[in-house]
Amino acid sequence: MTFPAGILSDKLPVKYLFTLGIIASGTSSLIFSLSSTYNYYAIAWFIHGLGMTCSFGMIPKLAMLVSDPGQMATSMSVIMTAINAAGIINPVLNSTLFESWRMNMVVYACALMTIGLICLTKLGHGRKTGRVNKKKNDQATVAKDQGIKPALVKNPMLWLCVNSQSLSIMITMILGAWVGLYFTNELNMDPYMSTLFTSMMNFGAVFGRIATAKALDHLVVKAKNKANQNKLPYNLIKARLPVMIGLTLLLTWCMHLISVGLGTESSTWFVALVAIGVGAATAGTMLSVSVCIMEVDPSNAGLCQSIIQFTIIGADIINGLPVSMFAGAYGWQAVFIMAEIMCVLVAGYQIFVLRLFGLNKVKSE
Q1: 279 shares its domain with 157
Q2: Which of 146, 298, 352, 355 is packed most tightly, with the most Cβ within 10 A?
Q3: Domain match, 145 and 26 both
Q4: Which one of 122, 156, 180 terminates a domain?
């Protein structure tokens, strides 16, 4: 339902899709807590999934609608941090406050429905995201009447976001799942180092997300003050691209150190710094993509976000059997060398797209 939900968000008010999804998730959770057969469980959880798709998938576009472009990155950074915090707090609350899973689901359902009603009554429709040029007979209007999705598919910025997001998610998943085997089996390092690496990656992600948000918003405010209003979305993206390129180059260097620079003689501080660099680069890139993808084509922002969501599915597939088979044949060091090569290719494409902006070959209409 991710793809249809993204299309619907471009056709219908995001406010109502978002609140409808939250209320549907709360209602289905309440039904789930009262169910006693597998059929009711399956139906309730299916409705819950639809509701979560409509609500969770609308968050980036909702943030775009209610935030000024110069504050968009900070808004997304707060949202992503809140999601991570919820993942940490939720297991603690479930194990300490609730005696049964049914009570947990009831409280969860009531909270969701309350939040949904508050959003329905308090949320506005936000700023407009249509094209600045509103002449009825211009090329933009004709393109809109004929359907602009083919032009969207040809947009290099869309594929830059897809490639950057896929790379960051895949590396995060590979390191999270397999770095322990690589450190202990091939590098003969203390198992403590792999635990340290994972912890420092999470710390680096928080730091990288905050630093990236500040840098993106600062550059966008500067670009917005002197931007050509007819090309405003692409001028804002152009302002953000150097940050994304810098993060990819940082990730490339960190992957090089992981593949050839770590060993039994590596100090704890060195391993921690590499892990912080990886976490900051991947989290910062994901934040940059979540912001830039909303401005690739503002009138189809929901569709663009849905396309990005599919990268998570693709990265999850690659991280499973394909990666383990490749590592079994060539070793884990080869996996990280391949990841480094992919970083170089993505950085090259990012620089190429930035060059297109500089040559004025990428148009906003």
Answers
A1: yes
A2: 298
A3: no
A4: 122
